[in-house]
What does this fold into?
Amino acid sequence: MTDKFQPDLPTGSSLERKEFSFEEGVAESVKRIKNLFENSSQNILVRIHGSDTDVGKSYLLFTLQTRLGEINISTQHTDLGISNPKRKVVIFNSSPYFEDATVAEVTFQKGRHNHLHIAIYRPDRKFLPDDIVSKRADIIIRNEGAKDKS
It folds into this structure.
């Protein structure tokens, strides 16, 4: 098995993109990840994008790992790379902002990097109207329950 992207795998972008509440977004994310996982022999790469700090990225990551574990799909959270050869869902947690539009564009080239992009924000910390994340994410989650950590 290889961790290299294989272009015949369908990406999340082929599915309808819609904004969801937190619980609805988790359910939709799990459904799409499960579908990708069942239709592939490779690792599934998922990237979580946040509009800012304290919008619920870590909580979303933990919730996805828990729900996927409940249906026997192995996950790994990483910012560095894939660490073991067992097929799994690898979840990357992105910076809450992109310093450069070119970097952002490369991140969204689904054929090169990720199978599913999930964006999360809270109502008082929205993505900017022209933000590439809000335009290109497969799933957008509105997290009304997120609060400042400090």
User: Anything to note?
Assistant: Residues 22-38 form the longest helix (17 residues). The helical segments are 22-38, 57-70, 101-107, 132-136.
